[in-house]
Specification:
alpha/beta; Rossmann fold; 9 helices; binds adenosine monophosphate; 191 residues
């Protein structure tokens, strides 16, 4: 399975990605996590990414695309993968299409988690208290929602028109959302 999980910041992508990866025995690859690891290690990639992340803006496509290309070429991603937080722009969709085609595969499903905006902000403010992420301040949270609406929400229609979109209600308990995702993906893996 080659899967994507999408949704606005705070929709629960990271939490759900871990469960999906486990169920399908594929790595859950989070571009945000890779960037944060690079920031923590002080690598040149981390230094570059941090400027954008701290402002709630997207890291430039060329940087993100080559990072993902390298990551999905690793042996553990050979049987499949779940991308969490990528693609986020139309240019990234095109680049990912190329990467997947080059290896003779296709994207099987795109799960999009839906959630109302006030709930998202509340969840992120809560996460700010527990995880202390540098980009979880209220201004940056709001900017990240705007950037998502402008640059990433249009991708939903792209994947819908390809017939691979699975819209899942992301509101409610974590377990309930996981069960909804599994039900949606079971229909894909059986077809
Ligand atoms: P996330 O953990 O997915 O919320 O990502 C945290 C931050 O990393 C984002 O706000 C962006 O600054 C950066 N980032 C993660 N994924 C991407 C991507 N696909 N394209 C550009 N920037 C990204």
């Amino acid at each position: 399975m080659r899967l994507i999980i999408m949704g606005p910041p705070g929709a629960g992508k990271g939490t759900q990605a871990a469960f999906i990866g486990e169920k399908f025995e594929i790595p859950a690859i989070s571009t945000g996590d890779i960037f944060r690891a690079n920031v923590a290690d002080g690598t040149p990639l981390g230094v570059e990414a941090k400027r954008y992340m701290d402002a709630g803006e997207y890291v430039p496509d060329e940087v993100t695309n080559s990072m993902v290309r390298n990551r999905i070429a690793e042996p553990d991603a050979e049987p499949g993968f779940l991308l969490d937080g990528y693609p986020r722009t139309v240019a990234q969709v095109e680049e990912l299409d190329q990467m997947v085609q080059d290896s003779g595969h296709r994207i099987d499903a795109v799960v999009v988690l839906t959630c109302d905006e006030e709930e998202l902000i509340a969840r992120l403010l809560q996460r700010a208290e527990t995880d202390g992420r540098a980009d979880d301040t209220e201004d940056v949270i709001r900017r990240r929602q705007e950037v998502y609406t402008e640059q990433t929400a249009p991708l939903i229609d792209v994947y819908r028109s390809r017939g691979v979109l699975q819209e899942v209600d992301g509101m409610g308990e974590v377990d309930e959302v996981t069960q909804r995702i599994f039900a949606a993906l079971d229909s894909v893996s059986e077809s």
